[in-house]
Amino acid sequence: MLLAAIIALAATLLPAAGTQAQTLNAPCRTNSDVTGLDAFYTHEEVTERLQLIEESSRGRVQVEVAGHSYQGREIYAARVGHGPTVVLVEAAIHGNEMTGTNAIMNMLRKLGDSSPESAAIRDAVTVVAVPKVNPDGGEIPRRQNVMTWDQTVALHPQLAGAPRAWYYSQGAGGFDVNRDFNPDLDYVPNPADMPGNSSSIGFYLTPEAQTIREIYRDLENEFGTVDVFVDLHHQAPCYTGEDTGMYTPLSISAKFITNPDAHGDWPKYDYDASRRVNVAVYDAIYRSERSPRSQVTLYPQNTNLPGTALGSFQLRGSAAILFEVSGQTQSQGQRKAGYLTQLVETGLFGILDAITDGTLDDIDPERYEEIPERRNVPRSQPSRQPDRDRPDRG
């Protein structure tokens, strides 16, 4: 019965061969085009699926409660593999960006199986995945967590009378958790640092960011360095590659800080390592998609966000990569969600495979600069549909 349930689950997570969302390109949806959330996991479903994956893996995948959201929902961390290189992957730190959650579930299910390919990855890599960082926001769904400023002061009494942190939304009554990070893992919220701005570090005010910090700290203590950090997000829907008219379902990036020296002395910072990881993802998706390379684009390279998990952990020595699939969760039907989930999964395995076969270190980081940047597409000018003639990943 358990095996049948797992097979049924797998069928719901991956799109069928030959259904690679032929209409992804048009219409170019906006957030007002709500099509429902049936393609994505609720918090309860995340709990159930992780239990199934843990059981079916026969102990290869181990799931623990790493922390709790402000409203008390579990924040799960799943660990698989025992290799010397550690990869930390997180998704849904913005509650309405859930494609990464689905991709992580698929990745864990595959890594926990008995195939030689998965066994080789487990020997080379230790993967720790957090499928839903912001479960409170995800249940609404919305970008922010659910925690008012008064509740924040109750957790951090020293902030009484201080200005609200810049990434607190008074209207929503919550924080953009992905601005709540600091490369100093021992940082304690200081009223003198408030309110800060988008070019400054975050303050570890939220229990969600604190949970990721402690996962990262534990891995750093165990391995010395968290080798790769992956953050899975969504962007607006209407982008193409530079001057190509080719729709881009995914943007990636290695650049989150314009001036690393402005944020202290972090000798492990390695921009080239981040660029290599991004090229590994780019190459893996190109091989899978068999379509022009402009289909995957670079997220804007003038980004300066040291208060993100990506920026803070990159300063500490992690090779970092941002995934931004097109469209918010509410604007995706099941077909598009399935395609984008598979795209992210392909990219994740691109990283793991490159580590496993030893090719990651051989990548020329300058190739990163050849990836086209994304461009806005007016809704009145739909972009071209790329060819897709590719097998599904096994």
Task: Describe the protein's architecture and organization.
- It is a single chain.
- With 394 residues, the chain is of the alpha/beta class.
- The protein has a single domain (2-6, 49-376), classed as Aminopeptidase, CATH 3.40.630.
- Helix content is 32%, strand content 15%.
- Helix 2 (43-56) runs parallel beside helix 3 and helix 8 packs across helix 10.
- Residues 1-27, 30-35 and 380-394 have low confidence and may be disordered.
Give a brief outline of the structure.
The protein is α/β, with parallel strands linked by helices and 394 residues long.
Percentage of residues assigned to helices: 25-40%
Weakly predicted, low-confidence segments:
1-27, 30-35, 380-394
- CATH architecture verdict: 3-Layer(aba) Sandwich
Instruction: Give the number of domains.
Output: 1
According to CATH, the fold-level topology is Aminopeptidase
Tell me the CATH superfamily.
Zn peptidases
Structural class: alpha/beta
Rg computed from alpha carbons, rounded to a whole number of angstroms:
20 Å
Give the CATH level 1 class: Alpha Beta
Total strands:
12
Quick check: average pLDDT?
Answer: 87
Strand content: 15-25%
Overall 3D form? globular
Termini separation (Å)? 23 Å
Total count of helical runs of at least 4 residues: 10
Helices and strands, in N-to-C order?
Answer: HHEEEHHEHHEEHEEEHEHEHE
Main β-sheet description = 8 strands, mixed
